[in-house]
Amino acid sequence: MHKLMLVAGARPNFMKIAPVIRAIGARQDFKHILVHTGQHYDPEMSDVFFDDLGIPEPDHHLNVGSASHAVQTAAVMTAFEPVLLEQSPDCVLVFGDVNSTLACSIVAKKVGVRVAHVEAGLRSGDRTMPEEINRIVTDSISDYFFVTEESGLEHLRKEGQASEHIFHVGHVMIDNLFYEVAQLEQIDPAQLSTNKMKPGGPYGVVTMHRPSNVDQRDTLSGVIEALGVIARSLPLVFPVHPRTRAALERFSIIMPDGICTLEPLGYRDFLHLWRHAAVALTDSGGLQEETTALGIPCITMRDNTERPITISEGTNCLVGNDPQRIIEAAKRILDSNVEFSGKRPQLWDGQAAERILDHLAALL
Questions:
Q1: pLDDT digits (tens, 9 = 90+) for 70-87
Q2: Which of 49, 216, 284, 362 has its Cα between 20 and 30 A from that of 265?
Q3: Which residues are annotated as catalytic?
Q4: Three-state SS string across the chain, please?
């Protein structure tokens, strides 16, 4: 039996780990050890996700908390090493592009444990993004690469990774999305906190947390003003990330009429909210993919994306944080008399976790 160590650090990791844990539970050839680094330390941003997704209590909780990128990465490395040495897994699975992904992959490689990177090969081309550095460095030392889209295959091959260790498997985030949609169909919507928060008619959903959008007064003020213009014709619901809320308070920015702000939501409550929306406006990576999978129009308030398939095949458009471009994109979507076009990418079928385990069973 192969021992896998799964590392979760921040909110997006939890959604990607959940289907892998479920797939392991259905097999006899693997057992897992779950490590939560505590990179997201706010219970609203982490613990609630474990509850919603049915992820078991972590075997190890490193409790690193928030800090600068350097301090946080170093704290994860220092705390992770003794756990890794004690457990001696056959392979460490890291997910996505957060600081914990980078930190734990470095520690594992330095002690001779194989590393598999789930969601490997994505590139935005923007090295001012901390996540881009995490992606590049993690892929430079990983042993096995599990890729969500064709662009990931191309990037890894150009970077000299061995083709026999690169696998196009689909996307575990989409595995989890389909699982959770099925769970929602089985429960009374009245049980969900967001059911009574949804406007009676069409509405949009907003998420925003990236430093490029929220850390500068003029930029954040301009984006909020643009959202206010959109909200005159389409009510917006905005679960506010702690970083964004702190910036709004620090800059004394008042939320315009028509925008309903909420505290951060658990995965299932948030899914219930956005899957019925007319449009999502976001600077997230994962929501670009999830909206594509369910055919929801998405406006991404970034200058670049590491997920180009959501634009070339999906329902995503990239507008940056220019207020006029945000407004114009929303108007195009809302004024369109034809159904918003887009298709689900290859292998985004809910079976990525099973493919990953099949490959690992052969590799290990």
A1: 999 999 999 999 999 999
A2: 216
A3: 209
A4: CEEEEEEECCHHHHHHHHHHHHHHHCCCCEEEEEEECCCCCCHHHCHHHHHHHCCCCCCEECCCCCCCHHHHHHHHHHHHHHHHHHHCCCEEEEECCCHHHHHHHHHHHHCCCEEEEEEECCCCCCCCCHHHHHHHHHHHHCCEEEECCHHHHHHHHHCCCCHHHEEECCCHHHHHHHHHHHHHHCCCHHHCCCCCCCCCCCCEEEECCCHHHHCCHHHHHHHHHHHHHHHCCCCEEEECCHHHHHHHHHCCCCCCCCEEEECCCCHHHHHHHHCCCCEEEECCCHHHHHHHHHCCCEEECCCCCCCCHHHHCCCEEECCCCHHHHHHHHHHHHHCCCCCCCCCCCCCCCCHHHHHHHHHHHHC
